[in-house]
Design brief:
351 residues, four-stranded antiparallel sheet, alpha+beta, two-stranded antiparallel sheet, single chain, elongated
């Protein structure tokens, strides 16, 4: 998990309760703590260089630091707040440190450029280039995305809005859907952004709450707005053949596909913030190969198996759609179709 992924949920949480932009919080943490690897961050969970003033009653950490005074940098020995966790640090900064009267002009600002300027003018830092450094970090990592208010969806409701994704993921998802449409895949988005509360809710399904297990983790990339799930309009909601083709298209675009994981999650797709669209000539079209048995005996055996698997009287609702048998007889069944049918038949315990 990246540093931004670790702290962004806390930054968003306290943005909502205290009115301090999440982008500003994350950018300051990146600058002040060298993305979480500075001595102060590692040893004292202090991401912002917050000094231990007279009102601080917790543990302290002594460290040399630089201050800009009288037009030059000087080195001084200072005492800093020692926090028990990263969240405690972000909470203290948002609800105590920045609630001091001199920071009143910062409260409620919803423009990251203005917030970067104001926090410097309020005396947070002595470096005259501090505002621009914050702005550069925010724009480099597109942190302004985290300032967007979350929708009021309940934990039982899936968000399907692509615009709720990180800007990079939006671009990747739209390109992915375009390529799937060109390939004739009839798919749709079932979920994009997912709050921590909803992730927890889904994780409990099949464990402490009735239902089938639907996720294996509490830390999905849906929370970071970098993942989306799909389903199929036809021939079935999670048609393996269609999902497999979509997975091949995704991988050709450099998009991660859950279908190749150790514990497969075929409807799941995700990217990192560093993802870039490949050049058109780099996108390889999937080569469609027809399923062609190598002998007449294998041909007859395959037809017999498909005839059996599509028999509704024998298998009821679990029977495969007869259209697959028709495709085989017409010679239009692809190798991907055949592989997909094996997965479906095995899943339905028909084999």
């Amino acid at each position: 998990m990246s540093f931004i992924d670790r702290i962004s949920p806390h930054a968003v949480k306290y943005m909502k309760s205290e009115g301090i932009l999440a982008s500003l919080t994350i950018a300051q943490a990146i600058l002040e703590s060298d993305s979480g690897i500075s001595e102060l961050a590692v040893e004292a969970n202090n991401l912002f260089g917050i000094k231990a003033g007279p009102s601080w009653s917790g543990q302290v950490y002594e460290l040399k630091t630089k201050e800009f005074e009288d037009g030059k940098w000087i080195e001084v020995l200072a005492l800093f707040c020692h926090f028990t966790s990263i969240e405690e640090c972000i909470e203290y900064r948002s609800s105590v440190f920045l609630k001091r009267s001199r920071y009143i002009p910062l409260w409620g600002i919803n423009d990251y450029k203005e917030a970067s300027r104001v926090i410097y003018e309020c005396g947070y830092a002595t470096d005259p280039s501090y505002p621009q450094k914050l702005i550069d970090v925010i724009e480099k990592y597109e942190l302004y995305h985290y300032d967007k208010e979350e929708s009021n969806l309940s934990v039982t409701t899936a968000c399907r809005d692509i615009s709720e994704l990180h800007p990079t993921a939006q671009t990747a998802c739209k390109l992915f859907l375009e390529e799937c449409n060109k390939a004739g895949l009839d798919i749709f988005i079932t979920e994009t952004y997912r709050s921590q509360e909803r992730q927890n809710y889904l994780y409990e399904q099949g464990r402490t709450r009735p239902g089938k297990v639907v996720t294996w983790t509490r830390n999905s990339n849906h929370k970071s707005r970098l993942a989306w799930d799909i389903a199929c309009n036809k021939p079935s909601l999670y048609d393996v053949s269609t999902l497999k083709k979509a997975g091949q298209i995704a991988m050709s675009l450099g998009i991660g596909w859950g279908g190749v994981w150790k514990t497969p999650d075929m409807p799941h797709f995700e990217v990192t913030t560093s993802w870039k669209a490949p050049k058109k000539e780099e996108v390889k079209k999937e080569e469609i190969k027809l399923y062609q048995p190598t002998s007449k005996s294998l041909m007859d055996h395959t037809e017999n198996v498909l005839t059996d698997l599509t028999e509704e009287k024998k298998h009821g609702d679990k029977a495969l759609n007869k259209s697959w048998l028709d495709k085989f007889k017409k010679g239009t069944l692809t190798e991907s179709d055949a592989i997909g049918l094996l997965y479906v038949a095995a899943d339905r315990k028909l084999l």
